[in-house]
Amino acid sequence: MTTITRFAPSPTGRLHVGNIRTALHNWMLARKAGGRFLLRIDDTDAERSREEYVEAIRDDLDWLGLSPDGEERQSERLEKYEAAFEALKAAGRVYPAYETAQELELKRKIQLGRGLPPIYDRGSLKLSEEERAAKEAEGISPHWRFKLDHDEPIRWEDGVRGPQKFDPAQLSDPVIRRADGSWLYMLPSAVDDLDMGVTDVLRGEDHVSNTAVQIQMFTALIAARNAAQQIPRFAHEALLVGKEGKLSKRLGSLGCDAFRERDIEPEAIIALLARLGTSQPVEPISDRGQLVESFDLSTFGRAPAKFDDTELDRLNAAIVHSLPFDAVAGRLPKGMDEAGWHAIRPNLTHVCEAGEWWRLVTGPIAERDFSAEDRGYLSAAAGALEWSDDPWHALTAKLKASTGRKGKPLFLPLRQALTGMDHGPDMGELLPLIGEERARARLEAAARE
Ligand code: GLU
């Protein structure tokens, strides 16, 4: 059976790093199995869903290189949910409920006050036909709950958490539909997972108890439809937290725009999120194939995965150092060619810093103060400069022989005079880019100052 995974964001905001991680893991799971990765837009909440967010989600996935193999929208499938609802109703698995939000809140408070878990007491299920008719006559339109089967524990083998067991009597019958007819997340998601042939549901551990409920929905739907459909496998990954170990507000708004603004390569984000929270080392791997190959749910830990910006920057630097010219040409300063990129690349944490370093080639450079002795040395250097394929090594060899200088006194004044800086790109690579004329002028200027 082809593996089918899905990423199911609600378009009520931009994707954040936690969503990106879920999308990535679903993408990798599908890729590794040679299967399909679906984007499902969970837009049943017409009030809060926005088309601009749908587009932003697509753009972000595209930028990250996680383009889906297919896209579905819940708002286009409302009649499917209606049919499933009717089938479940006919099977006695959904029932109308009439409590107001205030009544429910009061019930909860009383239960908590008595030290009881706040489980819905099935008050509406116990209403007689007449009592129900009376409620409707009062003009109260019901919302709808799915009736959990209390007979047996709910079990599944979780891809990350191992064997799971829930007592359904400890769960509230979930509300699946509001009084205005609109859908809550639970039922549409189960209908879609069945209809789209989703084989693996991989999502955050905040969904564990939803899974317990949805497993009963899957079972009820399959029975009601008398269909040869299958309940997906489930895996719930530990949540992503800030490096201080807490769920962080900042992470909840950290998304692709912020990464782009910081000039983080998508490959750095992917390399980090692919391995974070697993027992595999986080490494600057820009080969997706390698990451996909090593993807393995059994390496996922139960402890929260800690997201650290410093680690992201470190990975970004390592990935930038290996980026080929073609991959960055459009983002480099004017005139910077392949040799320029290769000379400058090792000094970068982010590609956008290339311009600062390229100024060492094009000038102007910072003026430095030299001692009289160094000025003499630099004047000799200007005289000794000879152009060849490797002018730097020719120059330093000559100066070493003629002045007896070595190490820092040999190299540093030359670097300072030629670039205005104490450190930077390899001079052997940089000097040919600076060129003979500019190099001589800089040495002469430094000798004069
Ligand atoms: N729309 C749901 C969410 O964003 C999807 C959860 C799921 O993957 O089933 O939480």
UniProtKB/TrEMBL annotation:
Position of sequence motif 'HIGH' region: 9-19
Record's subcellular location: Cytoplasm
GO molecular function: glutamate-tRNA ligase activity
Domain called Glutamyl/glutaminyl-tRNA synthetase class Ib catalytic: residue spans: 5-313
Broad class of the protein's primary localization: cytoplasm
Superkingdom classification of source: Bacteria
Domain Aminoacyl-tRNA synthetase class I anticodon-binding: 384-446
EC id: 6.1.1.17
Binding site for ATP: 249
Subunit structure: Monomer.
Family (UniProt): Belongs to the class-I aminoacyl-tRNA synthetase family. Glutamate--tRNA ligase type 1 subfamily.
Function: Catalyzes the attachment of glutamate to tRNA(Glu) in a two-step reaction: glutamate is first activated by ATP to form Glu-AMP and then transferred to the acceptor end of tRNA(Glu).
HAMAP family linked to this entry: Glu_tRNA_synth_type1
Protein name, entry field: Glutamate--tRNA ligase
Organism: Qipengyuania xiapuensis
